[in-house]
Amino acid sequence: MLNFLRGISIANGLLLQESEISSCLQKVVEVLGQATQVDRCYIFTNRMDTDGKLKLYYTQEWCNTGIEAYLGAPELSGHTYDVFPGLYDTFINNISLFGLVKDSTNTKFKETMEMQGIQSYLFTPIFCDGNFWGWMGYDYCTHERNWEQTDVDVLFAVARNIGLRLHREQAEEKFTIAEERLNLAISISKQGLWEWDLKTDSVIFSDYFAEMLGYEPEKFEQTYANWRSLVNPEDLVITENKIKDYLEKKNNNYTVDLRMRHQKGHEIWVKGAGIAKWDKDGTPLYMVGTQMDITELKTQQLVIEQQRNEYDQLINNLAEAVFRLNSKMEFSFINDFWFNISGYKKTDSIHTSILDYIIEEDRILAKQCFLSLNKEQEDSTVQELRIRNKNGEIQWVQIIARRFSMNADNENSAIAGSIIDITNRKESEQKALEMTELKSNFVTMASHQFRTPLTVIYSNIELLENYAEHIDVKIANRLLKLGKRIKSEINRMTDLMNNILLFGKYDSREPTLNTKPSDLSILCKRVINTYFSKQGDGRKVQFCSDDHIKRPVKIDELFFTYILTNIISNAFKYSEGEQNPEVSVYHKPDCVEIKVRDYGIGVPKDEINKLFDSFYRASNTSTIPGSGLGLVVAKQFMELHGGTIKLESKLGAGSIVILTFPYAET
Questions:
Q1: What is the mean pLDDT of residues 250-261?
Q2: Nearest to 571 by CA among 617, 532, 627, 521
Q3: How many whole angstroms separate alpha carbon 496 and alpha carbon 509?
Q4: Are residues 155 and 124 in contact, defined by beta-carbon separation less than 8 angstroms?
Q5: What pLDDT is recorded for position 5?
Q6: Which value, to the nearest 10 degrees, does the dihedral of the CA atoms of residues 568, 571, 576, 580 take?
Q7: Alpha-carbon distance 542 to 603, whole Å?
Q8: CA–CA distance from 226 to each of 234, 260, 287, 318, 646 (Å)?
């Protein structure tokens, strides 16, 4: 019995002294296992899993010599209480369960215990803050033992102490978080910080606390008596009474405005606030708090009083209507600028509904927004609506509204906000839209106008080439060489015009997709056969796909053709003299992936992302024709399809362009 009581005492001491909870519980299990002379002592912890079910986890264990240990065995963790029928119903009522296994009337429970070789058992529930946290078990495997009620009661008390320690752990964790947040706020708010140990009466003041009072931090005396001597005598009585009432929990918080003597002799106003930590018996342990210089604020209170009369003038001269609505959506306040917007005087609009001024087409939307604020479904709303002014004209306004309460009990809630005339802005937006359309039309017109002379030049070059067949061979070869160069530049100019036209249409939001479910493998083969079957250097596209998988993609075939031809053309253009470019199509679980690979000059690493900027060309392509728009337009078209484009490249080793298209919704 003496060993048993000594073990209980040691276990309770560990719960009070050990800092780390998991290690503490393990030591408690070991001490109690030895003190009770059981074969196994352990703790099961409750956890609510992601499936919403309460499950058991075997977290601590001590075993006597020769007894098999189960800690870490997966079969003892992650199970619901169905494994131990009736156990949860007993524990939830904070009742211990003990006895001989052979006497159990619960067949399933008896079989489970016998499978583990257990003959006698004692289970004590552990509660933390009124919540069922877990339970502690004691097993006899080598012999039977009839538990005495006094022993059960003592071990039940230990389980209760474990719950108290868990409560302390949680409370300290919350306090630590609060302290960290406080320190973070202090670091940016220029407030003095203090900490007062109520047991030793020692005080620590932050550097800024001392500087606020004009002292060098290292010369500021870190004592409560020093602080007390600097407080105005009249304010000291009030302040210490507030501290006393707070520590005795007569008040829920401690805040105070007081005057303190500056090192130079004058007084400053400071706002003090603090929070305390109590032990489980309700004895205050320490306080931490802040102190902020509010001298300027106090000084300005007189100014504020003088300016109060100017407030109405200020608010009435704002370039927006400021309003407040009651629960019926009626104006309870509106400033003078309302007249500038609507033509109605504020005296005529008070107690009338704001909806009366909104045109019928927008009234339903406005009503829904205000109702959502009244019903606390939303905190604020911003809406652009149309109102009809007193002259019957329609004006665009932006209404910014927020729900607020006029007292701390959240009663008498109202809606406040402002009404801004945005008619001019709306007109500007309309003009901007017209300018965008004009820009698009100009780009289209310019592109087409360029095509005509280019076509004429191209045709004449062909005539010259035909004429060259009938003249001197030397002159003919020179003409043909020049003609080839001119035709190459014409093709380059034509490609540039095409890209500018596409880029301009995208920029003006003109492109619309004509999509339909398509098989990308078939489309890729068609593009390759149509545009790349006869290359001047004899190379061909190496194509592969998992075309046995048939999952359609919703795609605009015209835009897709542009994307793929552009990328394959680049693959040929930037890999002249190297092996064939490769195109592969693979159906992944969430998308179709197309890879176009070449073994050409590659792209410098620091320039890869820049290739998607308009007119940017890699530094190693100066001798190769190009517009710097192909990938830009391809990226835009990919985004229209909800897809992505990515470029991987290594200088001198080639490039891979990866296109991904989402599957069509079924």
A1: 92
A2: 532
A3: 20
A4: yes
A5: 80
A6: -80
A7: 22
A8: 17, 11, 17, 50, 67
